[in-house]
Write a structure and sequence with these properties.
Shape of chain A: globular
CATH architecture of the largest domain in chain A: 3-Layer(aba) Sandwich
Number of domains of chain A: 3
Number of helices of chain A: 17
Mean pLDDT of chain B: 93
Largest sheet of chain A: 7 strands, mixed
Low-confidence stretches of chain A: 1-12
Order of helices and strands of chain B: HHHHHHHHHHHHHH
Strand content of chain B: under 5%
Largest sheet of chain B: none
Radius of gyration of chain A: 25 Å
Largest interface: A-B, 38 and 26 residues
Structural class of chain A: alpha/beta
CATH topology of chain B: ABC transporter involved in vitamin B12 uptake, BtuC
CATH class of chain B: Mainly Alpha
Helix content of chain B: over 70%
Low-confidence stretches of chain B: none
Number of strands of chain A: 23
Oligomer: heterodimer
Mean pLDDT of chain A: 91
Strand content of chain A: 15-25%
Amino acid sequence: MIEPSGGDAREGGASPLLRLEGVTKRFGALLANDAVDLDLAQGEILGLLGENGAGKTTLMNILFGHYAADSGRILVADRRGRLRPLPGGSPGRALAAGVGMVHQHFALAANLSVIESVTLGTEPLFRPWQGRRDARRRLRTLVDETGLDVPLDAAIGALSVGERQRVEILKALYRGARVLVLDEPTAVLTPQQAERLADTLRGLASRGLGVVFISHKLDEVLALCDRVVVLRHGQKVREAAADRVTKAELAEAMVDRPVQAPTRLRGQPGAVVVEMSAVRVGAAPGREPLDDVRLSVLEGEIFGVAGIAGNGQRSLAAVLSGTLVPDSGQIRLRGVAWPKGGPLNLTRAGVGRVPEDRHAEGVVGAMTVWENAAIETVRLRASQRLGLLRRRHLIDDAERLVRLHDVRCRGVDVPASELSGGNMQKLILARVLDREPRFLLAAQPTRGLDIGAVAEIHRRLLEARARGAGILLLTEDLDELLQLADRIAVIHRGRLSRPLAREAATLRRLGLMMTGQVADAA
Amino acid sequence: MDLLDILLQTGFWVAAFRIATPLVFGTLGELLCERAGVLNLGIEGIMTAGAMTGWLAVHMGADLWTGVALAAFTGLLLGSLHGVLTIPLGLSQHVAGIGITLLATSTTYFAYRVILPDATSPPRIAPFPPVDWPWLKAVPGIGPVLAGQTALTFLAFALVPVLVWLLYRTPLGLAVRTVGENPIAAEAQGLHVHALRMGAVLAGSALMGVGGAFLTLSAFNAFFFEMVNGRGWICIALVVFGGWNPAKALLGALLFGAFDAFQVRLQQAVGGAIPYQVFLMLPYLLSIVALVLVSRRASYPQALMRPFIRGRR
């Protein structure tokens, strides 16, 4: 214990470290934060819960100074424990006041070394040398005290995701942070890594740090945090001690409408739809390699692929989307060679694709909803007459899809960029499923969607499975995988494990396989 | 005629270093801008403006170094325009840069005509003389080559280690490299992204201006229209060739200088058998080949050409 006089900081009445009063922020018409009040005590871990878009990240970006609040105040305790107002809008001032932040998309530059990343901005800019020796000694001490082990001279670009996160935490602690904000820190970690992070955070809190832990995963918040605050549509809707609230209550507070999880019927797998054997993709800048990938997806099953981002999922998806030709290996679609000549031939052969990044690859934001609905099929004869598009026919078709799949939009002739993430994804799924594909590639289909949209996407995928489609589901969300998949394989450094049956797959086991600690399921 | 003989002539190497000098200034300037994440296509115009203002100052009676300083200041002014357009306003760096080149070039020609309406042949000045260091001539090999150069060439080559030190050994350089790679990382450490980018663009543009002034104050002794003649664009290619590393960029500039000096001598050696335009084309052709070979592996600053607007979602 560093401050024996402070007593147990977790008890009520511990000295306050941070106070937000009536913080309000608008982005155009969207009210992202609506008069939010928040308190944080010394040694406390506060869970900040809410759906995507509830305003959690915005609130913390205001605290850290990335955004300026439209109104409200922020008070941070100085070193003597007196609350002082923090002028907003400057990360430099937030750092000086003792607020550190671990960004969801790490604020790191890949070309710097660890020690450069940590010391960046801590020295006077106009000095003809860098005070490395002193910095290295302080950083070493910090690493020893906290167990946040990273190679100090490695380039950030060469570090794993878990290591980068440790660098982010070290950056904040090196600056003497007394309030540490972590934005969705476990989204990129395996279950084991998440446990290790939780231990680290408990250790930091026991030394008097205040921690704000942003998440939308209820279990981990209840396991780690002392107190929980729930945001919904930018407002604080619930605040409770973690041991006096149930998971169900929190779920209800996060979502203002009942969400029915889709029911999953027993599958009836049939013949092989897609078979990959010995597929290799060489490493290249910006391309994840694949090494000897073998898999077979059956009719009427969902074949799940788990893995930490960057282990080859992108290349696997690109190969099956027709945008990347593997260096070697064979792929067969229902017994015949995989269609060559690009994505159009895949569409013709009954392959449906839901791309990972719906904004970049799924829809063209500046084009209308009906154009986006027709985008995969415009080159087919049915969409044309005398070389011109059958506009009326395509618009009618889009209207039918929008109705059938409950895509909420002002009409099919508005730009697709107007759609929310969930509706955009429903539109993509609608145009794909309407052609009743025999094989469906779904890459991160629910990333960033709210609970209602997630349930809807899951229902559609299960329907396609019941219809007999073979589905390859790539996702980083292990809960989603365990909920939907019939068989699960793990991809690690470009190699795909043999699949586990649904019953044999547990979070723990998948987690170990994702970090390569268990080579294979067998 | 043995072509290898050319490579052994002192005169060839003197020319190669002389040709490389404005490229070194321009390339270092462009490199500094790009390392901070700002492409500066205004370089061609800035070099033209620098060439003219430096020369004009000397023509009107200022001393040579004042001319150089004024050329740097002209670069700074034009750089500040590019900076304001692309950094706080976040406009397209391509469009702004080409606009600056067109504006600076035509304004320069216009100013020349207005200030010297009666000049039929370009007025001459007394340019920088070669350095007068007898001990340097005595150094075997490189000595006579360096002794044929002017002070500005020495300045250009001395700037390379200075810039390497600045970029890789100082807190400021670390900050500049970070804003070119991921401005959010810089902001999250309390740095001012816009100020750093602006500083890099101003300093880089000033160097470009000096590069232009070398042409009128050292390589030649007068200002001609079209005298920059695409050197700015060569600098942009040299930055890529050097992989955004000052030392490698210097090597590229010397290589280009050598190609160019070589083709002039080759023209004389071969005579009229081959049209001279073919020889003029040679250095550019070789640059393209070198660029293709080298830049396949280049890792460019990740935030290059990406405006950074605070608080935008």
